[in-house]
């Protein structure tokens, strides 16, 4: 009976450890997903900002086009004004010419009527009534002058008619020009309005998209914080297993120490967040201490990566593995083989990148080995 009770107790304890491990792994999994979503949203936002800059350039171009169009419209308006003045001048010239023509016509008609009434004899009688040759010559001269005047009047009227015809044509041309200029102005105004509309819609589109992304990132961060709190709560009563760590590789040769270094791939000075331990491809990668696997999967920079929670907010990480032997939620023991070494992710050759994080802060793993 006593044995049975102790079995039952062991069972209950195991069950609760498994449950805790599973719940914890679930939260951690969710947190990882949220973090990768945040990364994705951030890179989208970066893209959005880039697009905003590109659009800014496009908008600048459109705005200079708008300025250009406005200048063109001002020019056209000046042209229209000038044409309208020209039209006014031509019109008044035309009116004056027509007025003069009317008067001359009236005079000529009067004279012709008078000549007709006199039976056109008047001029001959004047000549015949001359008293002597001097008188005759003088009368002849007068008759000639009257005749010349009539001819001049007729000539003038002919020219005036031509002039009026020309001015009418000029007026028509000017009016057609005016209409063309007005049409051009209307077209330009339409272009202007279209460009302005385009600028406004591009601006609001980008602003909206970026605002959405920022809101998304805020929401994801809030969710991540909530999960971190939840993990802390679940971890709360779990203390560190204790002791120094076991070396995670089959040897202890470190090819790159913890600290600032020139990154060989990224070509920038960067914190090396762990130590690189020499490890041939396929050699054993072992848990540094007892704990629970909180991540076993792919990461673009770490490659195939395992993270183990050892309690007391202490987490170890093993990166660039060729093959993983554990899964999230597994309970592992110190020295257990959890993966085989490799060069996956951001790596130049097979090695174990080994990290120690305490309360999420990178520590020099040397201090724990
Ligand atoms: Zn490394």
Polypeptide structure, described:
With 369 residues, the chain is α+β, with helices and mostly antiparallel strands. Helices cover 62% and strands 17% of the residues. The chain has helices at residues 2-117, 121-128, 133-235; strands spanning 254-256, 259-262, 269-272, 275-278, 284-286, 291-299, 303-309, 314-321, 323-324, 331-332, 337-340, 351-358, 361-363. Strand 7 (303-309) and strand 8 form a beta hairpin. The longest helix has 116 residues, at 2-117. The protein is rod-shaped. The structure holds zinc ion. Zinc ion binds next to loops.
Notable traits:
single chain, alpha+beta, Helix Hairpins, Glucose Permease (Domain IIA), eight-stranded antiparallel beta sheet, three-stranded antiparallel beta sheet, binds zinc ion
Short description:
The protein contains three helices and 13 strands; from the N terminus they run αααβββββββββββββ. With 369 residues, the chain is an alpha+beta fold.
């Amino acid at each position: 009976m006593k044995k049975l009770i102790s079995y039952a107790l062991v069972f209950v304890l195991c069950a609760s450890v498994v449950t805790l491990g599973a719940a914890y792994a679930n939260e951690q999994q969710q947190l990882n997903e949220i973090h990768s979503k945040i990364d994705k949203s951030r890179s989208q936002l970066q893209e959005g900002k880039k697009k905003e800059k590109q659009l800014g350039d496009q908008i600048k171009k459109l705005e200079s086009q708008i300025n250009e169009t406005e200048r063109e419209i001002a020019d056209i308006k000046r042209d229209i004004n000038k044409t309208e003045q020209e039209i006014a001048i031509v019109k008044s010239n035309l009116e004056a010419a027509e007025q003069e023509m009317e008067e001359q016509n009236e005079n000529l008609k009067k004279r012709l009527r008078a000549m007709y009434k006199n039976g056109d004899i008047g001029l001959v009688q004047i000549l015949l009534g001359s008293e002597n040759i001097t008188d005759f010559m003088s009368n002849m001269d007068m008759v000639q002058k009257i005749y010349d005047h009539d001819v001049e009047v007729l000539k003038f009227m002919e020219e005036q008619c031509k002039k009026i015809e020309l001015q009418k044509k000029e007026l028509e041309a000017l009016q057609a020009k005016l209409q063309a200029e007005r049409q051009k102005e209307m077209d330009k105004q339409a272009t202007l309005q279209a460009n302005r509309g385009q600028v406004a819609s591009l601006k609001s589109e980008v602003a909206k998209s970026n605002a959405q992304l920022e809101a998304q990132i805020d929401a994801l961060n809030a969710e991540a914080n909530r999960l971190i709190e939840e993990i802390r709560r679940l971890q709360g009563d779990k203390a560190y297993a204790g002791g120094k760590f076991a070396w995670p590789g089959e040897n202890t040769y470190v090819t790159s120490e913890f600290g600032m270094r020139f990154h060989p791939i990224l070509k920038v000075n960067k914190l090396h967040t762990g130590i690189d331990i020499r490890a041939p491809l396929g050699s054993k990668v072992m848990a540094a201490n007892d704990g629970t696997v909180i991540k076993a999967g792919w990461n673009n920079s770490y490659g195939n990566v395992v993270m183990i929670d050892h309690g007391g907010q202490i987490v170890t990480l093993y990166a660039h593995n060729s093959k993983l032997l554990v899964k999230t939620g597994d309970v592992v023991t110190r020295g257990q083989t959890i993966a085989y070494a490799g060069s996956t992710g951001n790596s130049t050759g097979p090695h174990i990148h080994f990290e120690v994080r305490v309360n999420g802060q990178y520590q020099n793993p040397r201090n724990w080995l």
